[in-house]
């Protein structure tokens, strides 16, 4: 079973990097555990699990199988993950590239707490850049406070929930970054903060600090009515 892969967005990321991602089945889609503990109703409905290659049954089932392995045999899952990261390091070196890995492509697992032989992936591969989006205010606050591994970058994901929105603004004011989904096109600013185009590249670790990563709605997000997707008339400050 191959764990790490690429997709159209990862492939069009910045020059100089080989970027791979781990694509699990989000939330409770796999029928075992919950890989998105802070997911809102709007996030669950609009999840990218339903867009791109994810619409194909074989791709969906592959993601579910990886998720089941994570919960049912974590030791073997982590052994395979470490093996693939090591192989990707060698491939990147041969190509003259740096390696970056996004472990939560469509999940929100606290990987800093998942150990293999006493080490997290961040500790085992200090020269690899890891990055993720998260809806966990605790994890984002720890990142802003400098309490996460030096080679791990986090972007907070905004949702329709009022508490989440309060956290999002607080993190922006603390020079953290948030991601927000917009209807149709991106505004230049949101709540007074600069909006950068998050669809041009997935390399969030290269974003300037204190910005909104704007993403245009995709898949089922186009039908969102919860407030997860920001409407044009309400998206600007």
How would you describe this structure to a colleague?
The chain is of the alpha/beta class and 237 residues long. It has one domain. The protein is built from 8 helices and 10 strands. The chain has helices at residues 8-11, 41-46, 57-72, 74-95, 121-124, 137-144, 162-173, 232-235, and strands at residues 4-5, 17-22, 98-102, 129-134, 152-157, 178-182, 189-190, 193-197, 212-216, 229-230. Strands 1, 2, 3, 4, 5, 6, 7, 8, 9 and 10 form a 10-stranded mixed beta sheet that branches. Strand 7 and strand 8 form a beta hairpin. Helix 3 packs across helix 4 (74-95). The protein starts with a strand and ends with a helix.
SSE arrangement:
Elements: E1 4-5, H1 8-11, E2 17-22, H2 41-46, H3 57-72, H4 74-95, E3 98-102, H5 121-124, E4 129-134, H6 137-144, E5 152-157, H7 162-173, E6 178-182, E7 189-190, E8 193-197, E9 212-216, E10 229-230, H8 232-235
Parallel strand pairs: 2-3, 3-4, 4-5, 5-6, 6-9, 6-10, 8-9
Antiparallel strand pairs: 1-2, 7-8
**Main sheet summary:** 10 strands, mixed
Instruction: State the share of residues found in helices, binned by percent.
Output: 25-40%
Structural class assignment: alpha/beta
- Fraction of residues in β-strands: 15-25%
**So how many helices?**
8
Shape: globular
What's the gyration radius in Å? 17 Å
Number of domains: 1
Average of per-residue pLDDT values: 90
Q: What is the N-to-C order of secondary-structure elements (H for helix, E for strand)? A: EHEHHHEHEHEHEEEEEH
Report low-confidence residues grouped into runs of 5 or more. Answer: none
Using DSSP, what is the number of strands?
A: 10
């Amino acid at each position: 079973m191959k764990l790490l892969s690429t997709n159209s967005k990862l492939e069009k990321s910045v020059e100089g990097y080989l970027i791979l991602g781990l694509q699990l089945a989000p939330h409770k889609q796999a029928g075992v555990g919950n890989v998105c503990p802070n997911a809102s109703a709007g996030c669950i409905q609009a999840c990218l699990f339903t867009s791109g290659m994810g619409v194909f049954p074989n791709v969906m089932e592959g993601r579910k199988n990886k998720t089941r392995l994570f919960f049912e045999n974590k030791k073997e899952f982590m052994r395979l993950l470490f093996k693939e990261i090591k192989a990707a390091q060698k491939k990147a070196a041969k190509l003259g590239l740096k390696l970056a890995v996004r472990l939560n492509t469509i999940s929100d697992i606290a990987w800093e707490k998942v150990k293999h032989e006493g080490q997290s992936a961040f500790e085992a591969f200090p020269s690899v850049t890891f990055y993720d989006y998260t809806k966990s205010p605790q994890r984002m606050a720890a990142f802003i406070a400098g309490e996460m591994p030096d080679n791990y970058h986090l972007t907070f994901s905004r949702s329709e929930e009022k508490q989440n929105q309060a956290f999002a603004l607080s993190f922006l004011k603390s020079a953290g970054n948030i991601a927000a989904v917009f209807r149709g096109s991106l505004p230049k600013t949101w709540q007074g903060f600069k909006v950068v185009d998050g669809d041009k590249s997935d390399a969030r670790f290269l974003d300037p600090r204190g910005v909104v990563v704007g993403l245009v709605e995709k898949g089922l997000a186009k039908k969102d009515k919860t407030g997860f997707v920001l409407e044009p008339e309400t998206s600007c400050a």
